[in-house]
Predict the structure.
Amino acid sequence: QSSPQAKPGKNFVQKLKGWSAEQLDEIMMYWCYLRGSEEEIEGEYVDQLERVVSELRVSNILKTDNEKEDLFSELRKGQIEQLNPRAAYLLESILISYCSDREKLETFEIHGMEVWSSLFGFLVNTVKEDEFESFCNEKHGCSEEFFVSLRGFKSCPVLYDQYTQDVKEAVFQNAAKLKKDARCAREKYKQTIGHEYNNCCEPDSSFMTSVQIREEIEKMTPFNKSKGIFAHIKDPEVVEEKISIFKGLYKIRELYGKQCYVGFVGPQNAGKSTLLNKLYDKKAESGLRTHTTEVTKYYVADDLIALDFPGSNSLTNISQFMNSGHLNNFLVFVLKYDGSPDMQMIENVKMAYKIKSFSMKSAQMLFCINKASQGVAGEKFDEDYKTSFVNIIRDHIKENEYDEKEVGIWKKVKEGTEKKLGSTVYDKIKETNEKLKEYTVNEIKNDDFMFTDWLDKDAHKKGISGPGDVKQRIANYLVKNDIRKLSETGDIWQQN
């Protein structure tokens, strides 16, 4: 599930140390079992997650709110083949949300049961006959009136003010049932003991035991919905065990997600290694004759890793980012300014947003259109110019095939053979590319682009940004994703 560059930081390891050996063994043994053959891990894991989520939904006790519906919507988009690696992350998020709702419901029911039990036992076992009838005949307009009336009994055992308003409101909404059930219990046990109920404050010791009270309450309490979530399942213990394991894996994923990977990508001699040196003073090789030849990792801090990708005119070399969507990735694409967007730049922009689509909301990107100061003298790089520049890219993507080469190949296969395979694959690829095109066109934002120059000290006068502006974007991302507080971002930069 982790990026090929992933390496647990010290904070990650320290947090895992807080887990018991049994917890870690259970989770890791299950994970190893799921791995089996590496090609099948996602399919089996996702399949089991999906089944558990379906079981949580089927009783309709836990509601699918807007947050979960958004995740389900992302999951449905992800049914195209390339997005499948995101399914585990999305399903885990849905599962955790349902589990959180379930825990809240169970807490609510525990408190509701406490109030209900104490009131039921009190009304059945302690209240005099005439007082009971008087209380049952009272009309209470709201929960406050109901509990004020109960306070009138000197022997009322519960301090109801310690409970939240929603619990008291739920008890009040079921007040008629409470009175009815208490009356039935009183009549039942009068007959059981064979004599009339004593009209006194002290109950007959043989009237109703605590065990009998619990048995009655279990039958009639309205605070037991959570028990019905898995009532339709033959072996709910199996599902509960899986939920426990999934939650553990999600916890590991979240701990890992507290690390951030800042990737520097771009063609040779565009200035990406120079930018990395300006930001982190890591001495990445730069210059006309020296180029990055392999992915280089720089451990800037325990929770921040900078990745310098090989210089290339194509972004296909960073496809490994597509399978690390649960990580927080900030990708800086450094592309050389040539006056207007060319086809290579447009293709790189498409690839970048394709990567972002796999990473859902966790990935952020910044296109640095670099060496802008070397353009035509007197050019102004204001917001209007940036808007027109970005519009050229957006309009080209919108008006042309998303992947002309891929679609063209399968179109020829479809036209050249009557086999169903050719037609099916072509239609699927066509559909996939249309979805990616729509996503890219909608996702492209002016703010994702920045005209830059790393060496021109007067660049800001022309509306051109420098390394400090990139530094601020990365710092904002760290703060937004709760990786660091703003006051803690200063130590990750080169100290000039």
About this structure: The mean pLDDT is 75. The CA atoms of residues 126 and 294 lie 81 Å apart. Residues 86-125 form the longest helix (40 residues). The first strand starts at residue 260 and ends at 265.
